[in-house]
Amino acid sequence: MANTRTAPSGTPTNVSQKHNKGGIGESTLRPDGTLKVTGEFAYSSDMWHEDMLWGQTLRSTVAHAEIASIDISEALAMPGVYAVLTYDDLPAAMKNYGLEIQDTPVLANGRVRHHGEPVALVAADHPETARRAAAKIKIDYRELPVVTDEASALAPDAPLIHEGRDDHHAGHVPHPNIVHRQPIIRGNVEEARKRADVIVEGEYTFGMQDQAFLGPESGLAVPSEDGGVDLYVATQWLHSDLKQIAPVLGLPEEKVRMTLSGVGGAFGGREDISMQIHACLLALATNKPVKIVYNRFESFFGHVHRHPAKLYYEHGATKDGKLTHMKCKIVLDGGAYASASPAVVGNASSLSVGPYVVDDVDIEAIALYTNNPPCGAMRGFGAVQACFAYEAQMDKLAAKLGMDPVEFRQLNAMEQGTIMPTGQVVDSPAPVAELLRRVKARPLPPERQWESAGEGADVRALPGGLSNTTHGEGVVRGVGYAVGIKNVGFSEGFDDYSTARVVLSVVNGEAVAMVHTAMAEVGQGGVTVHAQIARTELGVTNVTIHPADTQVGSAGSTSASRQTYMTGGAVKNTCEAVREKVLEIGRRKNGSYHPAWATAELLLEGGKVVTDGGEVLADIAELLEGEDPIDIELEFRHRPTVAFDLVTGQGDGHVQYTFAAHRAVVEVDTELGLVKVVELACAQDVGKALNPLSVVGQIQGGTTQGLGVAVMEEIIVDPKTAKVRNPSFTDYLIPTILDTPTIPVDYLELADPNAPYGLRGLGEAPTLSSTPAVLAAIRQATGLELNKTPIRPEALTGTL
């Protein structure tokens, strides 16, 4: 596996690594790594409290219905049951919640809008008792017609999923069943179309993907003596949860104290509320600690999914291969509640052209309200669906022009200075052509490797793997390429900030730094990077990470590839302020003894205060002896963004762009419809690799999730009933180690001068281009158009 570093362009960092072991740029090991791989790490589902009760949620068995009656008498009569709650038991005037639009009921109020909606809660002394009690609750449903797609949602007589909308998007959408609409108009598509020598059109379907994190939703709510509650929970955004939880409990925020517990993956699925409010309600109603842990079946109903989408594209190009125009319509199915749909629409529209120069565009993206499962944040956030479509279009254009697909992309690739369809200038490196060059230049893996192994051929190298369904008959190789563009951070004028508190003190004669943030560590390695930043900026070896909670300011969400940029930036800024306090103390105590205290640029390295020439002036621990700990908490904000214009879509809506390219090598049994992905190579610009090992891990993880939605992952929703048909890991398949190919990673470090250390958020970009690269390779192998994800065997054999 080759990891290539390229000298950065832009503002260099002014920190020294010479004596700061374990600082940025090193592959420092994760503090939680050993515990996780040995099974000793405590996840939220492992929490326990003396005398605790178990909570259970009763969910609707139909997708759209009026609730005529609820009878809880049999459940309440069961021994061991402490409480049964319905909508009528909610304690506050606020009974809904939501990330942006508060349209989601804590418990259904007279109507359910999707399969699996929470209707009632039970607390009991044993989880099985709680489950059985919930099963005894009798609900009389009067089923209503279901809305499941664009046609049924926008029909003149369509049932309204939410009547009487008064949210801030309601006034500019053409139909109440549209959550949000974002057009982007630039140039003149009709005139540009006249210049096109070739035009290609395509209609694409992207399936509903689940985040499929291994740790189910879980948490523990403990009532407190002051009438409040302490909540220990696995989430992505503590302070967002807090702002949604407190109002529906009827409590001030200071009486809802939240602490992050062990998180078993997230990928966007924990950005919304799941069991948090329910556990708190039961704890306050019973005055006992209440633990809720979803099983896998319930988890599929307990969180949002990736938006399924229909995408309609038209591209034109001149005969020499230059793009003339692009027109598209993107229809995202948001399901029954808004969740993050408005922001997903903004991403899908603004990134729909891809990493290409196209001056004339006509773009429309909408998200629908339907009776399908709610959809919201998932890794890639609107850009994934668009990338699948525009990359298929690039291959179609290249084929029609008789051009190499990589060379065609490079000819049209954006670069620093390119103007986006929104009018925003890409003001940092955009090495799109170089990323494509690198993946194409990589040697191809040997063909038909199973044959070279002789009689002892490993069937795992064949399509179908251990099912032993083929021995190589009808197996054809295909190679495909794709590249994508993703934004980093929260966009469209959102006040995106992170907070960090850093304490520097002396413990047993050694300077020790403590870093306290509310960042949710969901597996991305943020706690590792925070310690590396503190070591780099403060020159100390010993760094402790305080548990994330709401007793410090918000760190924002662990999403949008933003945490290293934002909370890492907050840690960096706060450490710089702490460092300046150390130097102030040094000048006060020792300034008269050495002129360098007043004139030299001073650094903290190896536990010492040193000049930029390396001369040691003082020991940090000795300087701080007798002093109060230095304790500073600061906020960090990125440069401001603005909302996209609701008519033209113009505006500097994004903070930063990031790019990744993939080459997929597949082998397909065209007779049986079986696919083996042999290699999925990636090249990505990361700006600055703060932890190279973690960088490679993130890129490989994102690539694997893109592989999953290419060939196997999809939540199946019955189009007639809107019921989920495969809520289990038996029927919803995710890539195992036998499905995951070799993933060579080649990363560039081209600094963004506007970002801390020049870094780029990197966790999402590889999820974009891996999917269309795999699809492109399968298309090359089979000659089929394949405009839907995931690819199933029957699509390859024509037996649909």
Automatic annotation (TrEMBL):
Residues 1-31 are annotated as: Disordered. Keywords: Oxidoreductase. It is an enzyme of class 1 (oxidoreductase). It comes from the Bacteria. Residues 38-145 form the Aldehyde oxidase/xanthine dehydrogenase a/b hammerhead domain. The keyword Isomerase does not apply. One of its GO terms (molecular function) is xanthine dehydrogenase activity. Its EC number is 1.17.1.4. Pfam families: Ald_Xan_dh_C (PF01315), MoCoBD_1 (PF02738), MoCoBD_2 (PF20256). Residues 1-17 have a biased composition (Polar residues). SMART domains: Ald_Xan_dh_C. InterPro entries: Ald_Oxase/Xan_DH_a/b, Ald_Oxase/Xan_DH_a/b_sf, Ald_Oxase/xanthine_DH-like, AldOxase/xan_DH_MoCoBD1, AldOxase/xan_DH_MoCoBD2, AldOxase/xan_DH_Mopterin-bd_sf, Xanthine_dehydrogenase_dsu. This is Xanthine dehydrogenase subunit D. It comes from Streptomyces antimicrobicus.
